[in-house]
Amino acid sequence: MKVIFFFVLISFGIVAQNTDSSFIRLIYNQALSKGKAYEDLRSLCKDVGARLSGSSEAAMAVQWGKERLELNGFENVYLQEVKVPHWERGTKESGWINSKDGLRKINILALGGSIGTNGLLEAEVIEFKSLVELQKSSKSNVEGKIVFINQPMNEQFVNTFNAYGGCYSIRGEGAIEASKLGAVGVVIRSVTLPMDTHPHTGSMHYLDSVIKIPSAAISTLDSEELSKLLVKGKVKFSMELDCRVFPDELSYNVIAEIKGIEKPNEIITVGAHLDSWDTGEGAHDDGAGIVHSMEALRILKELNYKPRHTIRVVFFMNEENGNKGGIAYAKRSIDRGENHIAAIESDRGGFTPRGFDCDGSHEQVQFLKTFGKNLNEYDLFHFDRGFGGVDIGPLKKSFEKIMLIGFVPDSQRYFDFHHAETDVFESVNKRELELGCAAISSLLYMLDKKM
Amino acid sequence: MKVIFFFVLISFGIVAQNTDSSFIRLIYNQALSKGKAYEDLRSLCKDVGARLSGSSEAAMAVQWGKERLELNGFENVYLQEVKVPHWERGTKESGWINSKDGLRKINILALGGSIGTNGLLEAEVIEFKSLVELQKSSKSNVEGKIVFINQPMNEQFVNTFNAYGGCYSIRGEGAIEASKLGAVGVVIRSVTLPMDTHPHTGSMHYLDSVIKIPSAAISTLDSEELSKLLVKGKVKFSMELDCRVFPDELSYNVIAEIKGIEKPNEIITVGAHLDSWDTGEGAHDDGAGIVHSMEALRILKELNYKPRHTIRVVFFMNEENGNKGGIAYAKRSIDRGENHIAAIESDRGGFTPRGFDCDGSHEQVQFLKTFGKNLNEYDLFHFDRGFGGVDIGPLKKSFEKIMLIGFVPDSQRYFDFHHAETDVFESVNKRELELGCAAISSLLYMLDKKM
Lengths: 451, 451
Prior knowledge:
The structure is a homodimer.
Chain A: H1 2-17, H2 20-33, H3 37-48, H4 56-71, E1 75-88, E2 94-99, E3 102-106, E4 108-110, E5 121-128, H5 131-135, H6 139-142, E6 146-149, H7 160-165, H8 169-180, E7 185-189, E8 215-218, H9 220-232, E9 236-240, E10 244-258, E11 263-273, H10 283-302, E12 309-316, H11 324-335, E13 339-345, E14 353-359, H12 362-369, H13 372-375, E15 382-385, H14 395-398, E16 403-409, H15 414-417, H16 430-450
Parallel strand pairs in A: 5-6, 6-7, 7-8, 11-12, 11-13, 13-16, 14-15
Antiparallel strand pairs in A: 1-10, 2-3, 2-9, 4-8, 5-9, 10-12, 14-16
Helix pairs in contact in A: 2-16, 3-10, 10-16
């Protein structure tokens, strides 16, 4: 007992004596020497697995999240009900390219939300290089065909998210635009940079006013191959998708907090999304964000930091195909009369940190920039206007003055794994992950001290 | 002919019209859209392989380097003779931990330069946590034993090279210090951060005045295991190393240049080392540096840039175990009466660039910092005093006013692969490699314009 009391005094002593700079050093030491994030991520990836909204795995992920937050000893561990869509891939898809050069089976992956093909769908292929090129075409060209949208990501952007931004509409809107011209199916080039054989899925949409047609992704290498065959002559594409939509399911955001001692009613949220696509293990997207958020709080608690404001961690459900968790969380915040002053999201992978984006007023961006003084020595140099995150986005409507902050790690490898079977625990580097935890924990500390 | 002439005019036009900022954008576009570095690296790793000084593979690497430089159309492609040491591992090593818990075979890797064991070497193990702890021990403790130096890299450094700096002397000096106290062999914990089963080699030294004893590395996981067994009781270590030293071999630095149009006698060198350890494929160490250097020049040539100074690329031989290439290059430079104003080295892997270190005067460091203005937008923020590189180091003695510059990529994953069988082509990300080429090419351009 005496020994414990002594150690508590030492802990308080350290906290009280140290400047921001030395407290941040303690945060980094915790993350790098005594971090729990890597083991947490292993468990989420291997003990739970891929966890699309509405699946049994997503339900297990909710249980996992609640248990981990309780194990960390946070306050007010809470499940918030969220109604989520429930789409299932069914039996693994099959696809064939059928040309003068012969028949070849290729990897395909239904896009999330796609209808099935109800048996084998076969049709001649017509290629477009972009959504705009497709939109400019005509019914006489497209009718009865499978539309192949072969738009590569622009590799000249240094930040790969900019390239993604210019390209992902082929996935979301491809089926609508193709169907308007009478196509019977859509196949897209995976929205990724490397030339490899992995298809990448992701959400797609239908309009009630436009006939629904099946929609799938093929790999970049197969896209190049298909494009070359189309130069030689007619090509038929054959595919079978077994996907189905089920009634909405009850699911949950998983929430916990450390109560503020000065301003408990002012809330700083840090979060990520617990759901993932149903391929791979959702390691970078967004298992990394989940363990970043939890570990950031755990470190502050471990260092016996008593926040001025309430710091809350949220594992959002359903970012990938509906954002129902983010919307529900913002609504609950208003319903409860809460005051949200800042929210941080990590949803760009578990890579080496570069800094933070700020979606807020000019003053808020300038305020964030001042953090560089303490964080440059940790190789954090990016503090600028930018995107917060999908999950925290709805808070903006409810809280006009909220500062939304997006964690910015190195972006080079993110789309190599994004929504593909390669997004597994082994693709995450332990130190890169831990540095992300330390960066976010340091940001929470600075925000709490200075807001 | 007319068409070609027209294109040449356009090229010149672009160069003449654009500011630094837009020329650097062209460099990045070349590297990211039309880069040759990734294929060059694949070829060096797969067509040549690991290439320790004195080996047949090193001779093949020299031929490969000369051919590639000629293919790129550079001027004065030249082989400079260098006498290098020739050490061979021989038959793959074997090692066993022999304890109360039973016999277990483990992965071991002789340190470069070690003598063999001349059959099976078996002895009781004594553990030390550092070289200093070993030095403080006594003959009565150590005599007749195998010394196990189990010093982990300090994971709290954000830059892993700082942790390496604090640790690598156990590899270089371990055998000398252990032998002084009568040890019969040395086993070190691999100088790496992750907990895995891969031993990492690297150079070690002997003194003529101290008996030579065999020296090998074991993995971090096996080091932890061995340490735990030693707590329980006596442990014997058994190993067989078949290494041998052969007479020095004739080898070569491989050199090419683009002649300067204003100041051809003022030379800016960019280089990396062509040799590698004999395990893995020398992909990050230092295949990445080789293709960085070659590609940086290729891009300038492709963009039809006519440098003011002579820009020279050097593939140095024998960085890993002797630095004979670096020493010979500096000597040749003096012998030929050359004037070297700057030298850049890439020897920290093919990861996302962070910036550059400068080993030079205060004014030179300040000068380098001014480059941030044009390079911050490419996520390059590190421009500071630091280490140039082993190969270019000897130039410093010969040219007092030379500015030595070390390329600084993200350091988090470097020691995961360093000197281990995992340092293969597949461990290098294409975009990260290409961004390194663009950063170094941009630096060459800026140095050439502003010096």
